[in-house]
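Appendix C reproduces, verbatim, an entry submitted by the partner laboratory led by Prof. M.T., so that reviewers can inspect both the input and the predicted structure.
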Amino acid sequence: MKTTAFIAMSLDGFIARYDGDVEWLSIVEKIGEDYGYGAFWENIDGLIIGNNTYKKIMTFPEYPYGDKKLVILKSGISPQQALTEFKQDSHLYIDGGMTIRSFIADRLLDELIISIIPILLGHGISLFGEIESNLTLIESKNFDSGLVQLHYKLNKNRE
């Protein structure tokens, strides 16, 4: 089983404003450019997302996840329990700030793809909070829009 988070954040580490607003992501929108998300999506078997992320997704005009299996990580469900809902050879997309932090803390996240948006928000919902982990850079890309994408492998050993 492989778990990967694919997420965008501001340069100062926020994934949304306190009210959940993510309109600032649009500053890097460019026709025909999805920053690798389409290729990533094609290789995903299912998703584990946080409840707050699910609620935000349900406000979108269209449901973005198609028929891929989705498990919502709600209070009382651990990341390990959520993983048991999928086959062992699955590649899972992990999404939502608290969910990603939980997977990192439990050493269950394999890879992290972060798209850094060239904006400083100054406040909002932090992607990492006070989580600590060692990472190894797999790849970095920069785009004309100013977006920088970093792809990391997480070190699951406690040091």
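The longest strand covers residues 2-10. Additional entries are available on request from the coordinating office.
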